[in-house]
Amino acid sequence: MSICVFLSAADLDERYAKPARDFAERIGKGGHTLVWGGSNTGLMKVVADGVRETGGRLVGISVALLRDWARADADEMLFADDLAERKALLLARSDAVVAMAGGLGTLDEVTEILELKKHGLHDKPVVLLNTAGFYDGLMLQLRRMEEERFLPVPLAELAFVTDDGSQALAYLEESFSQR
């Protein structure tokens, strides 16, 4: 299974780095492929290192303006012309999506993936890996949208939310096996 992971390229505290590494090692040990933004910095590097060191494949999809930060030893590295093309390629090359802690770019990616799923434009499983309660605020907003009927489908059909990497991967593997 090819798993797209959206996350930060910033160097972050161990409360984010340790669970990211743990999840990455699960991806690699499971024989899965990481599809990610291709950066060799911050949490992106932590995850790519964990996948690589445990036997997984790396497929990076970056943008030309970030070429200098791209990981040199990825199995594949693609460069999109812009961020919109990058998001489309990340989704096209993956079987499942996981969002980890990240900034505005990650938030943009998460909302677009949920919007596309809402409209039936993809049926890939989506996980919000809620490390250290990172997505609590977003979940509060999404639940309000659901309660006030801004979402035409139940939130549970759009994303699975957990703070546990083993539950996240188990959900993805189960969902993928049913497709």
How is this fold's topology laid out?
Blueprint: E1 2-6, H1 14-29, E2 33-36, H2 42-53, E3 57-63, E4 76-80, H3 83-92, E5 96-99, H4 104-118, E6 126-129, H5 136-147, H6 155-158, E7 160-162, H7 165-177
Parallel strand pairs: 1-2, 1-5, 2-3, 3-4, 5-6, 6-7
Helix pairs in contact: 1-2
Tell me, briefly, the overall form: globular
Physical arrangement of strands within the biggest beta sheet:
4-3-2-1-5-6-7
Named CATH topology: Rossmann fold
The overall pLDDT average reads 96
Percent of sequence in beta strands = 15-25%
Output the number of helix runs. Answer: 7
Structural class assignment: alpha/beta
Order of helices and strands: EHEHEEHEHEHHEH
Tally of strands = 7
What is the terminal separation in angstroms?
A: 12 Å
Instruction: Summarize the biggest pleated sheet.
Output: 7 strands, parallel
Structural domains: how many: 1
- In the CATH hierarchy, the architecture is 3-Layer(aba) Sandwich
CATH class: Alpha Beta
Share of residues in helices: 40-55%
Radius of gyration, whole Å: 15 Å
User: Spans of 5+ residues with little confidence (pLDDT < 50)?
Assistant: none
List keywords for this structure.
179 residues, alpha/beta, seven-stranded parallel beta sheet, 7 helices
Structure description:
Helices cover 46% and strands 18% of the residues. A seven-stranded parallel beta sheet has the order 4-3-2-1-5-6-7, with helices on both faces. The mean pLDDT is 96. The protein has a single domain, classed as Rossmann fold, CATH 3.40.50. The protein is globular and about 45 Å long. The relative contact order is 0.16. It is α/β, with parallel strands linked by helices. It contains seven helices and seven strands. β2, α2 and β3 form a beta-alpha-beta unit.
